[in-house]
Amino acid sequence: MTQYLVTGTDFTDEKALERRMAVREKHLEGAKALKANNNLVLAGAFLNEDGKMAGSSIVVQFETEDELKTWLDNEPYVLEKVWEKVDVKPFRIANV
Predict the structure, then answer these.
(1) What is the 3-state secondary structure (H, E, C) of 18-75?
(2) In terms of pTM, does the model score above 0.85?
(3) What are the structural domains, with CATH classification, of the chain?
(4) How far apart are CA 68 and CA 89, in angstroms?
């Protein structure tokens, strides 16, 4: 499996946090499904200066890039305009 570091940076408009919170449960359900299928390695939100969620970092692993694309194309934070920018990089977890 290939691992990927996915960083989603939230929009900064006044409704951004409201959109995030509106679909957060759906996003977390998807994360639980990824975990159950051994596709989720690590995930969490990063915070702005005010301590509010402003984006996400996720390490996922998939057999193919098509699987990665399918997941990302259906990720609620992408579909519901929570993440303004999504950066995906191949990633390798250190064996320490």
Answers:
(1) HHHHHHHHHHHHHHHHHHHCCCEEEEEEEECCCCCEEEEEEEEEECCHHHHHHHHHHC
(2) yes
(3) 2-91 (3.30.70.1060)
(4) 11
